[in-house]
Fold:
Amino acid sequence: MISIPLVALTLFLSNKAMSETAEYNLGLLGFYQSGQYKEQPDEYIPYPWLGLRMGDLLFDRNRASYSFLTLGKFEMGLYATYGFDGYEENESPILRGMKSRASGLQFGAEIEYEVGPLDFGLDFTRDVTGVHSGHMAVIEVGIDKRMGDNLQAGVSVGVEVYDSTYSDFYFGVRPNEATPTRKAYRIGATINPVIEADIQYRLNDDYSLAMQIEHVINDNAIRNSPIVEKSSRSQIFLGFSYSGFFHY
Structure:
């Protein structure tokens, strides 16, 4: 359950941003995620693209963020994101008899610092929905470049760090879930290299195309799990949107 302080903070940030000019995106997204577990099929999911920027408050796809401090090239903010982790036991034969692992809402803080053309970032989040109560940190460096009037592209590299609670919830096997072909497996904290690319192309003043690709290389402790098959996993967002503005 989301805590009362989190709801109060969201309302406060929303009211604070209401005095600003807002930009919105409406469109359609295609989401692809490679199977993370043995014999789990890849996922292809279409869903609406709803984006909204009000001053320092931003909602986009599965993420909301608010920047509350800017000092030159240093920026600090809060953000929440809904992950696409987890599984249902009927998604693969190796998962049968295991309790399903749901996705959770992660909430935390982020710091960004610009050095020349490079952007350095540090994110730290915790599950606030009580799904697993794990923590995740992301450390990355990236570069974002505008090429002409209509094309903007960026790429970043870094690591995703999962604490033992997060890692074990999604990639471990509990003793009561063990079988002769699926041994019990407990995982500690893991470090997973990640590379991400973003491309946005504006067709005209109102319409644009966007793509985001993320590729994560699994830590050896995750690779060795009896329910994991692949050494890496990928996510791709591909979308078409209409942009507009309105004032308060």
Q: What stands out?
A: Residues 1-5 have pLDDT under 50 and may be disordered. The CA atoms of residues 30 and 46 lie 4 Å apart. The helical segments are 4-17, 164-171, 220-223. The chain has one domain: 4-246.
